[in-house]
């Protein structure tokens, strides 16, 4: 019985994984920059189900990032 419960928990975690790893515009740890000059551009590349996603941000005066463009490249 415990093997069944463990297997069910494993399957449930895989079912929830796509929502957890869905493409996000900005990682929370990178939402403020301290050394980048204001007005400079930052590009963050990621992949989502084989699709490359390029997120392009502009650094604001307070160091926050503002999404200015998102480009998807189909494989």
TrEMBL record:
The keyword Signal applies. It comes from Martelella alba. Residues 1-22 form the signal peptide. It comes from the Bacteria. This is Peptidase propeptide and YPEB domain-containing protein. Keywords: Signal.
């Amino acid at each position: 019985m415990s093997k069944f419960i463990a297997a069910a928990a494993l399957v449930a975690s895989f079912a929830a994984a796509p929502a957890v790893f869905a493409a996000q515009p900005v990682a929370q740890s990178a939402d403020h920059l301290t050394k980048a000059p204001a007005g400079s551009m930052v590009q963050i590349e990621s992949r989502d189900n084989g699709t490359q996603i390029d997120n392009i941000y502009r650094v604001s005066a307070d160091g926050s990032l503002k999404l200015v463009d998102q480009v998807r490249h189909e494989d």
